[in-house]
Amino acid sequence: MHFPHPKSPASFRARRDRNASIRITLHCERGDVRALVKETAGPGFILRDVARPVIRDDEVLIKVRRAGVCGTDVHIYDWDAWAQGRCRPPFTVGHEFAGDVVQVGRLVADVREGDRVTAEGHIVCGRCHLCRTGNAHVCPNTRIIGVDRDGCFADYIAMPASNVWHLDESVSYEIGGIHDPMGNAFHTALVGTELPGKTVLITGCGPIGLFAVGICKAAGASRILASDVNATRLDLALRMGAHDALTPPDAARVVKARTADLGVDVVLEMSGVPSAIHQAFALVRVGGRVQMLGIPAKPMDVDFATEIIFKGITVYGVVGRRMYDTWIQMTQFLRSGQFDPTPVITHRFPLERFDDAIAAIKGGSAGKVVFEIA
Ligand code: NAD
Ligand code: ZN
User: Fold this and answer.
1) Does residue 113 come out as left (phi exceeding 0), alpha (psi in the -120 to 50 range) or beta?
2) Any atom of ligand 1 within 6 Å of the Cβ of 208
């Protein structure tokens, strides 16, 4: 796996990559690319000049215009236990973005200079059992941009052409820049569920839960109940089309009232908070479905007999986005105009205000936070 490294001198990188073309070598001047870098194994990021990424023959170089900031970036910024176990500085952070293709590798056939694109940030092997059975989203060899290799909080990013997703002409760079978390919401809401006419409870109205509210609305759910502990986010849930915006203590009563004591057909668990996960199992109807996106911070107890088995429910674990069914669904919903994620975007910052962007997310009331890079 090619791993562009901001510290490698350009000349060395060009020599090391035997596939690099002369044109790539010419693009390797230092100092013309800004990147937000996790420089050392400690808290914070720095914004600094790096060499322009070198693309392989099967990759494209993308000029980044918009990029979404995510909870994962906050983990890396804080350098918490997960980040310490997973990340190897120095590397450029960021995994949600959209921009323009400015250079294509020799073997790339279906992406051209000037194309408006975003990309699937999970780079999979394409050869394992999972990849070959249509389950690349759980490929055990996955490498994630901005985590395992250089990411998109930069003027340019190199991406395998096979990960590139063309933006529909109706889709802005800003919306393109949040396809990754929107895709999480599409995956969670639509896989294995038939939403038309169904009652849905969404526990957790962070950016992904908020997208899910709008998706469930567009997909024809008859009643959408959204719960959160944060009043600003509950207001956003109402704007996205929720019928009921609930705090957790009210959820059981309102779900019963709206479903004739049955419980909801589907719960989308999008908080990762243990009490909300127990509530998801408690408030789904017998024989219903719980789609689990939220990631608990540590192991938690579940009473399998009463919470899952004797309720006859189906529990689905969400990983990323299905490749590429989720992307096709997302594009079709956006193109039709039946789903508009714009209200979820509450904060926009230039790259140099990265500390403010991280603070906005940590504040807990922001919807989606994006960088306006170019
Ligand atoms: P977020 O942390 O902004 O959203 C979580 C929301 O849950 C917050 O608004 C919070 O106020 C709310 N919440 C807290 N306690 C609650 C409770 N008891 N009941 C209901 N809501 C409660 O995060 P996000 O970016 O929207 O992501 C949502 C979750 O999905 C996170 O846990 C994240 O780690 C996870 N995630 C998973 C995947 C995946 O592939 N499985 C991908 C991206 C994110
Ligand atoms: Zn694989």
Assistant:
1) beta
2) yes
